[in-house]
Amino acid sequence: MKPLKRYQYERYAVLCNLAYPRVFKQTKYGFDPNGQRIIKNQFGKTMIRVLWSKESSEVVVVIKGSHSISDWLLNFAMWTRSCKHLGLNYRIHAGFFHLLHQESVPSRNEHQLGQSVLQVLEQTLVPLVAQGKRVSITGHSSGGAIGCVFADYFEKKYPKSIKRIVTFGQPAIGTLGFKHRYTLGHKTYRICCDLDVVTYMPPVPLLYWHVGKLLWLYNGRIYENTPSIVRFSRSFISWIIRPFSYHLMSKYIRNKDFFDDR
């Protein structure tokens, strides 16, 4: 598995963050004036941005996380749904299943009433892949979860079309069957920051599982594939002792320059 380079991480992180504002000027980030397609959810809100430029061989799909009360309520749909109709022999969280299969409000003439988010995203990407471009998917929270499932579906249907998947603060996605049968683990990077409780969700032990390579941002360092129990323990202990850490001499030494000019 190739390491995720720092500039790649920063690029996807910036794009994920900028997916939330209502207005996004893609030309500021090197994409073409006509290099953006917006895919809306069932309420007509922007859910996914597809970004590209003629000069680049990469198409970037940016997927928002939960950004409404209805989205957050879906997190409580903790039963599973089968993805066999997509050619995927596993089950995923019912809330993520709904996010992918909800009707997408048309945002362009070529979009039709009744099409799901998954169908519109596939329809948008196919012509770009036909031009020789490969797809990178990045998403925050539930956006990262559905990005993994869509990528697995798209790769099976259009082989070698997926370049990489980078998720931020992503919850667990599917059952043990999902963990074993997900085919893009070698291209999936799961970024977790400190004690992000969402990454431990859904709170049903041994039912839902993560996939891909974990990159844990903790105490100014990046740790790879740290077990969840270790992440939780270290973060909890750090939180407990943090007030006492300010008594260490190292905390005073770092401020010594304050006196140098006096």
From TrEMBL:
Residues 60-204 form the Fungal lipase-type domain. InterPro entries: AB_hydrolase_fold, Fungal_lipase-type, Sec_MonoDiacylglyc_Lipase. It comes from the Bacteria. PANTHER family: ALPHA/BETA-HYDROLASES SUPERFAMILY PROTEIN (PTHR45856), FUNGAL LIPASE-LIKE DOMAIN-CONTAINING PROTEIN (PTHR45856:SF24). This is Lipase. It comes from Vibrio ulleungensis.
